[in-house]
Amino acid sequence: MKAWIGRHPYRASLAMLLTCLLLIDQIFPPPIPHDAPGLVVVARDGSPLRGWPDADGVWRFPVTPEQVSPRYLDALLTYEDRWFYWHPGINPLAILRAGWQWVAYGRIVSGGSTLSMQVARALEPVPRSLSGKLRQIARAVQLELRLSKREILTLYLNHAPMGGIVEGVEMASRLYLGKSAAQLSSAEAALLVVLPQAPSRLRPDRHADLAQKSRDKVLRRMAELHHWTQAEVEDALIEKVGANPPRLAWLAPLAAERLHQSAKRNKQGIHATIVRSTLDRDMQVMLERMLADRVAQLPRFVSMAALVMDSQSLEILAYAGSADFSDPRRFNHVDMVRGIRSPGSTLKPFLYGMALDDGIIHSESLMADTPQSFGGYDPGNFQANFSGPVSVSEALQRSLNVPAVDLLERIGPTRFAARLSSAGLRLRLPKDASPNLSIILGGAGTSLEELVGAYRSFAAGGMAGTPRITPDAPIREARMMSAGAAFIIRSILDGGGHPDQPFVENNASGTRLAWKTGTSYGFRDAWAVGVSGRYTMGVWIGRPDGTPNPGFFGANIAAPLLHQIAFALPPSEALTRSRPKEVSSAQICWPLGTDASTTVPEFCHVKRSAWILRDTIPPTLPDRLRARGLIENIWFDPKTKLRTTPTCQPKAQQREVARWPALLEAWLPATQRQQLGLVAWSPDCPQASMVGSIRLMGLHNGSRLRAAPGQKQLVVTLDAVGGTGLHYWLLDGQQVAMTSASARKKQSFTVSAAGIHNIAVIDAAGHYDSLMFEVDGL
Prior knowledge:
Elements: H1 2-7, H2 9-27, E1 39-42, E2 48-52, E3 59-60, H3 70-80, H4 92-105, H5 115-123, H6 130-146, H7 149-159, E4 166-167, H8 169-177, H9 186-194, H10 208-224, H11 230-238, H12 253-266, E5 274-276, H13 281-295, E6 303-310, E7 316-320, H14 348-358, E8 366-369, E9 388-391, H15 392-397, H16 401-411, H17 413-422, H18 448-455, E10 463-465, E11 477-479, H19 483-495, E12 514-519, E13 525-532, E14 535-542, H20 554-568, E15 583-590, E16 594-595, E17 606-613, E18 631-636, E19 643-644, E20 653-658, H21 662-665, H22 670-675, E21 694-697, E22 703-706, E23 714-722, E24 727-731, E25 734-739, E26 747-751, E27 755-763, E28 768-776
Parallel strand pairs: 1-5, 3-4, 22-28
Antiparallel strand pairs: 1-2, 6-7, 6-14, 8-9, 10-11, 12-13, 13-14, 15-16, 15-17, 18-19, 18-20, 21-23, 23-26, 24-25, 24-27, 27-28
C-alpha cells in the first residue's frame, strides 16, 4: 500500500479527499423532507377540500410536475435554470457571470443560483454571505447525488416561497388566483415563476404593480428566447395582475376533519400529505348551497345534515355535517352525519320488509289503525286520530304508528333489532336496556350515515351497505331483506305500491324518488331518507343539543330539502328497475286477505290488487280480540231479522259470514254492517257480542228517529259507561271526536242525512261498543 501511494501520490490524495467528502456527506446529510408537511383532503378529482398547515404553520399543497401546467414548467426552466437537466447542481458559468456582474456594477444583475441551489436554500435557509452561498452550493450537490432531477423539481414546486406562510406553486395558484396550477395561463405562469425571487415584495395581493413589472420581464424573456411566440406574449401582457388576500375556500369541512382525524390515528400523515376522498366537488358545492339557502329560514340554534351516496359503489358523493360551518350558534363543529339521534319512523320500511320475507303480510294485508294497548304501551298517530281499516301500503305510506307496533309485536323487537344490526344499522339503547316496541317509533338511537347505508337496500336488491368516504375503504354489504321485499317496499314508497295503477312520476323531469320521513318525540329530530336512480340520500334537521323544535317534523321541514337534492342530482339509471321473479301481483279480498279467485263471493267484501312474494298470499293477521277466526256462524230471528241465539229463539236460522277483525268492526259504515249480517240484537235476547267493558247509553240499538218538522239536522247525544283511557267516537266509520279519561263521556252527534247510521265508541285498550239507528224526515 505504501509503495502504491509512493508511486501515485496525486491519486492517493484524490482518494483521501473523496473519502473525506463522502464521510462529511454522511455525517451532515441534506435536510430532505420526509415527514408530511401538513395535510390536504381532496375530492375525487384531486381538487382540495380542506387543508391543515405543517408544524411550522406553512400552507402547502403537494403536487408533481405532471400535475402542473406545462407553460409554468417551460417558463420556470427557461427563466430560472435552462441547464437544469445538464448541470450537477451548480452552474459554474452562471456563478462566474453573476460574480463578474456584481464586481462590475456593484449590485446583483443576474442570479447564479440553479433550481437545485434554490431548493437547498428553501429547505435550509442560510445567510446571504459568502459562507452561506458555499453551504448552499454544497447542499445542492448533495441533493443531486441523492435525488433524481424530477425529485428535485418536485421539491421546488412544493417548497418555493410564495409569500407569507404560503409555499409551493399549487397552494399559491389556489390562494392568489383561485385555480389549480394545472390551469395556469401564460401570464399567470410567469407571475408564479417570478414570485419566489422576492415573495414579500412581489405578492400580487399587496404589490400588484411591482408584481406585474416582474411578470412582464419573464414574459418578454420567453419571447426573446423564442419559447413563446410574440403574439402569445403580447396577449399575456394585456392581463392585469391582481389577487385577493389569501383565503382558503373550504368544502365539506366536517368530512375533511373526519378524514384528518382518521389519518392522524392511523399515522397516515407520516407517509402522505394528501388524503383522497370519494366526494364529488360539484355535488358538494350544490349541497352546501342548498343548505345555505335554507339556513336563514331556520331558528337560531337549528342545524342540518345531509348525505348523498352512490348506491352501487357505496361512495359518499356529498357530505354536509352541519348547516353553516362559520356559525358557532348552530353547533358548527358538531358532525350530525354521525350524531346519534332518535330516527322517528324511518325504521318502518325495514319492519314491513321483514314481515314480507316472513310471509305474514303482502302489500295489501288488512291492518287495524285503531286504539290498541300492547302490554301497557298505547301508541297513537302523529295526527292524533285513527283511520280504522288500512292496508300495509297505506299504513307505511302514511306512517301510521299503531299498525307498525302491532306488526313489531308479532315479529319481536329483539329479532328486528338484531336484523338491523347485522345489516349495519345499530340501535343505541340506554345501558342495560333491551329492544322494546317503542324502537319502531324512534325509541332508540342511530345516525344519518347508518340510515343512508340501510336505505341503500331499496336500491340494491335488499343489500344494505356501509358508506365509504375514501376510495380505498373496503366494500361492506349485508342483506337487509330479499330482493322481492325490497322491490315491494320501494314500490310503496315511491308510488303507493298498487300494481293495478300506472306510476306517476314525482316531478316533470321524471325523477323517481322513494322516500320516508321521520319525526322524533318532542319534535327534536326531523328526517327524510330516500333513493332515486343510483343515489341514496338522507337529511336530518334539528338542534344537536336535543332541544325540541315545536312544529318541526319530517314531512314539512326535511322532505322538501330531500326532494330538492334528488331533483338536482345528475340523471342516472336505477340499479335494479326490473321486477324480481319472486314478485307477482294478485287480487285479494278483505277481510280475509285471501286470493280473490278462490274466495267465496259473499266473503269478499273488498277487492284489492296486491304485490305478493313467492306466489304466497298470507291471510289477514290473527284477530287479537277474537280468537275463533274471521269466519263465523251467526243466528238471526226469521221474522224480525234481528240477531239472536238458539237459546233465545228456537226457530233461529244460521248464516255463515266473514267477520272483520273485532277492532275494525266499529269502523264499518252502518250499511256495510247490515250487509254483513251484523244487525241489531233482538230486544228479547241479551247482547252477547260486546268486546270489553264499555257500553253506550242513551239510545237503543235499532232505534228509529225522526227530525222535528222544518229541521235539516238531528242531534243525537250518547253517554259511554266504562272503558279506560281516551275514548274515540266514530260516526259511520269516521272518527269525529275524542274525549279524555277525566272528561265526561257524553258526546253529541249532528246527523244531516236520512238513512241508517252507526255510532261507535272505542277506548284506549281497543274495547268498543256500537249501535245502529235510522233517521227519517231529513
